[in-house]
Amino acid sequence: MTSNAARYDDQGDVPLAGYAGLASVFLAGAGAFAALARYRGVRLPQEVPPWDVALLGTATYKASRLLTRDRITSFLRAPFTRRTDEGEASEVVDEPRGSGVRRAVGDLLACPFCTSAWVAGALVCSYAATPRLTRLVCAGFGAVTVADWLQYAWTWTQQSAKD
Are 72 and 87 in contact (CB under 8 A)? Predict the structure, then answer.
């Protein structure tokens, strides 16, 4: 009998069960938050202003980059990934290792796009429960994002001046 992973891709090394486990954890976390919020009487916002969406998006971008590409957070990824390259601006590039759940977590932690869904989920739950605190945290991540872009701009002007 052929496994789902073998039917899904030619090499048969896609950790579908691990992905299903991670999706279950994500959904369980969202469900637990919803149940706890309801129990505690948390009132969801009637609307989310565009400025808050931009702030949440910027924070999600930066937090996911920090989790997946920053040297300092490599200790979080190390059990699930291995370093394969040096990226731009002192970022690193990791690739997943192992099989099953370990590989699935490695895929998640090596991909800023994948991790951003988890970060956004956490920030949205936090925003629903404590919008002022979440805005402050997101403003901090936003400030780091602006600082990064200013660093890139400064580097670009220095390189342009040499040419």
Answer: no
